[in-house]
Write the structure tokens for this entry.
Amino acid sequence: MMARRATAPRLIERLPSVRGRYTENAPLSRITWFAVGGPAEVMFKPADETDLAAFLAAKPTDVPITVIGVGSNILVRDGGIKGVVIRLGRNFARIAIDGTTVDTGAGALDTNVSRVCAGSGLAGLEFLSGVPGTIGGALRMNAGAYGADMAAVTMSARAIDSAGITHQISSARMGFEYRRSAAAKDWIFVGASLRGHQDEPTDIKARIEDIAKVRQESQPTRARTGGSTFKNPPRVESSGCQAWQLIEQAGCRGLRRGGAVVSEKHCNFLVNDGGATAADIETLGEEIRRRVAETTGVTLEWEIRRIGNHLPAFKEVET
């Protein structure tokens, strides 16, 4: 009689008990703005900061962790994400104002923070109305738009590391640079204190409306896109141009790969035009990078975060 072969336990069976919620094979294409990508092996929505810290302290050390906000600035590859995907929900979305300080959870939408501040007569955060995503992602990448960024408004941030230890980080320790921070990769941001200044609510709201108008006129805001695809290159003699101008010069406006296309409205935006795969979008992005480098000598750097695993048929491009 043959002995039965032991089967490895499912990942969800190896994870610690939590007060939040686990979901196996969670479909990520439903939450990403590109509407593409494979599933998360397990998604975890913690109940609160204490629940998150306890999970991180108790989880097996070999389990990889990926954090996703509202899916606005990421491309999840078609093979999905192994390990645990953490998504901070409404319990991380508080927004409280005290004088000229905003205490906000990392799960708060950037645009909601700007509008709550406007209603309280707190200026300086209007730019967040033009930044898709959450405060956690904005801290990680020093998000910015319309002449301002997180480096200019962040007083401190709070994060939990992979051992479940909470850190309070000053703005100086964040190491903000253009579209990046120097925060440890294993830190999960859970909150921040932001600074503003007093102004008339009607004036603040008018500036937010101006930003909305500019976005509607210049960006494919109603399309399935992930926001700006590439970072603007350093202002050096070899470029002197923004990413969209370099893409235009390389003749990539309207370029298509499968169901992915370069937006005719703003060519630093890639769009899922219907039925695109993550591989279509990534392949199109790499073709843009190749053509821009060949035409202008500038190598564009991805701003959209590409995460997860390729399906076997995908051919990796050397960069």
